[in-house]
Amino acid sequence: MKKSLLLVICVCLLFFSCKKVVENIISNIDIPYETKEIVLPASLFIPPPGSTELKGYKDEIQERDSRIANFQEARLKSIKVQLVSPDNLNLGIIKEVNVYLLTDSTNGNLPRKLVAQKANVPAETGKELDLDVINDNVINYLEKQKYTVRTEVVLRQVITQDVTIKNKLVFNLKPKL
């Protein structure tokens, strides 16, 4: 009797510890994602009368990845803004940047969700800029048929030519078990 009880306890411990090991192995799936090039037109950043703030945004519509149905949680792990062109500028022209996820009314109209930001970007920033990530679950946005990645920037100076950037995101996904 004692041996069978001990055997049952050992099997249960083995089962639950193996399940935890498997969950830890497969729970950290990182999916890299790169937006298309985002053009920030110089004409977008003309300050309104009486204001000196050079603020604008650009949207990029994304199609849902069919693999997302296999996951229960998605968190933005990292995001990097990369300057594509022009070569004579760097990201020091940006004073502040915010990245949001949002959906429209045809896709459930979720509220705009801040997922990353960087305030007080140093003027000496080079061609890449790591943003500070907000560690919230965003699976409900990624599950939609279409969602939008909105990049809002406040410039430090007036630009006389279009600036092209792209965002490199990494989502950490937790699968359904």
Describe this structure in words.
With 177 residues, the chain is an alpha+beta fold. It has a single domain, classed as Sandwich (Jelly Rolls), CATH 2.60.120. Helix content is 16%, strand content 44%. It contains 2 helices and 10 strands. The strands form 2 sheets. Strands 1, 2, 4, 7 and 10 form a 5-stranded antiparallel β-sheet that branches. Strands 3-9-5-6-8 form a 5-stranded antiparallel β-sheet, with no helix packed on it. The longest helix is centred in the N-terminal third of the chain and has 25 residues. The mean pLDDT is 78.
Please tell me the total number of domains: 1
Q: What is the alpha-carbon Rg in Å? A: 22 Å
CATH topology: Jelly Rolls
> What is the annotated CATH architecture?
Sandwich
Number of strands: 10
Give me the secondary-structure category. alpha+beta
Uncertain segments are: none
Largest sheet data: 5 strands, antiparallel
Proportion in helices: 10-25%
Q: Can you identify the CATH class?
A: Mainly Beta
Following the backbone from N to C, one meets helices and strands in this order, namely HEEEEEEEEHEE
- Amino- and carboxy-terminal Cα gap: 35 Å
Shape: elongated
What's the total helix number? 2
β content, as a range?
A: 35-45%
Features:
Jelly Rolls, 5-stranded antiparallel beta sheet, 2 helices, 177 residues, single chain, alpha+beta, 16% helix
Write a compact overview of the structure shown:
The protein is α+β, with helices and mostly antiparallel strands and 177 residues long. The protein has helices at 2-26, 139-142, and strands at residues 29-34, 38-40, 54-63, 71-85, 94-102, 113-118, 128-130, 132-133, 146-155, 163-175.
